[in-house]
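Hi team,

Below is the intake form for Helix-turn-helix domain-containing protein from Planococcus lenghuensis. Please confirm the fields before the structure is written into the shared record.

FORM ID: S-0412
PROTEIN: Helix-turn-helix domain-containing protein
ORGANISM: Planococcus lenghuensis
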Amino acid sequence: MLELLNSVKSLPSDERIKSKRAREYVKLMRLYEELEREKARLDRELEEDEKQEAFEALSSEFNIPPHVTVRDAAEIMGISPQMVRRYCAEGKLSAQQTLEGSGKWRIATAQLMEQPNWERFIDKRAKLKKQSTALADEVLAQLDSGV
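The structure came back. Fields below:
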């Protein structure tokens, strides 16, 4: 990781940027691009067992369920719910129909890690976890204070 940080160098054109914060922002954007390239490389190179290991680590950290709904899968994949149902029925996605003919499916979440909106899903789960934790803390504080 340190290599990535050190790989982001200032460019001669950066000297025209007067604001220190603007220079930091430009450097962060370059670092972000480098991180995206590194992530894409790892996505290609990870073995299935390594992907499962990464999924398990992310699951516990961001409260990711083992299965998602058709709606969640559609959001993660950037396609319509109808297309997700078709993929499930055709066996293109690892899924189980919850009730025969209902259109409701339990879709294994781990297989969606390489989909276009995976990071957005992670962000959403992290936000939900943070809100839930804050609410739980608030309730505990009220119980402790006897309110």
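SUMMARY LINE: The first helix runs from residue 2 to 7.

Thanks, M.
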